């Protein structure tokens, strides 16, 4: 009796398959099919055929690593980071530039497709969302924009990023996405015994800070530094969060300013800046609405809140509070007086959540405050689409949506959306 045939599309870990790539997926991977089964594989481009090795099999899909190109896309270019090239073994490819093998205009088209697909599949809406370049990026070929780089250090003291989806350090000799100042300062051939990671950070004035770490990164207040955006200075902690792209703070604050509808938002109302960090967007709102602005920035990081208080000090009606956003909103909903709710209805709520998004509880709390307008700054298309759907269920709809390529040669993309009732 002959052995039964394997089910159609069955693959096994370690199996080498030939795939024709037909789409891009969220997270920097691309979609091929083996006898009908979806296979996610990085380092490829829609329209080309590749050899790939299966590394994981799930019930309805598999993941693989690309081994070589059989038929290349016309959009394939030499990788901008030689240490991340498909010519290297998968565990010897540097992570952090997963679109670096794709022509820059095509990268933005693919990011646009990811956003639009997320909005349609997850958010239930169809919308065209072109992705705009940051100033200067096209002239530099999408290089030399990254003002903050963290490299890990292996047990031999060598510096490098992790390989994609791995904790394997890949020693590197170049950092093409980093600013020229960091490229000059980073001594990548230097061995760093007893160090677990090293941060290279370039501040607005061009100074480069090299921070070597043993064990976990520092927590709590360290040194105060200053970043400049559009002529305004912001204090923050040396180890605190700040946008990575040199132009990102200006690009995003300009987009938030464009999104604010002064016909529906009143300076005399009460505005909120949720996940407010050091007050970047709170200051943007206050500048747009004027000196009478009343705005509260809410941030879980106490050190960032302290800096936000200093950065917003020129507006008498501005304040910064430390708290987890979901809990803070829940308490606000319980204690707000009728007069405060009326002011909230004339104000603006800005959300800049982490990559996971705001989530149902926060969105329901925000919608329940019935603000004059909501502006959402998103670093993840699927999280944006999910939260947009929740807002839609609460009676809000997208009024404007802009997307920006603030991470060239990676799959990441930023967006700013405004919502109205």
Commentary on this structure:
The chain has helices at 104-121, 180-185, 248-259, 280-289, 302-311, 325-335, 338-345, 360-368, 381-393, and strands at 16-24, 30-34, 37-41, 49-57, 61-71, 131-133, 148-153, 159-160, 197-202, 208-213, 224-229, 232-237, 270-274, 294-299, 318-322, 348-351, 373-378, 397-405, 414-420. It is an alpha/beta fold and 421 residues long. The strands form four sheets. It has an eight-stranded mixed sheet, with helices on both faces. Helix 1 (104-121) packs parallel to helix 9 (381-393) and helix 3 crosses helix 4. The model is unreliable at 1-6 (pLDDT under 50).
What keywords describe this structure?
9 helices, disordered N terminus, alpha/beta, globular, 421 residues, eight-stranded mixed beta sheet
Structural class, by secondary structure, is alpha/beta
SS strand fraction: 25-35%
Mean pLDDT: 94
Question: What is the chain-wise order of helices and strands?
Answer: EEEEEHEEEHEEEEHEHEHEHHEHEHEE
The best one-word shape is globular
Query: How would you name the oligomeric state of the polypeptide chains in this document?
Result: single chain
Sheet with the most strands, sense and barrel status:
8 strands, mixed
Number of strands: 19
Give the termini separation: 68 Å
| Percent helix range | 10-25%
The strands making up the biggest β-sheet line up spatially as 6-18-19-17-16-13-14-15
Write down the Rg: 23 Å
The number of helical runs is: 9
Low-confidence stretches: 1-6
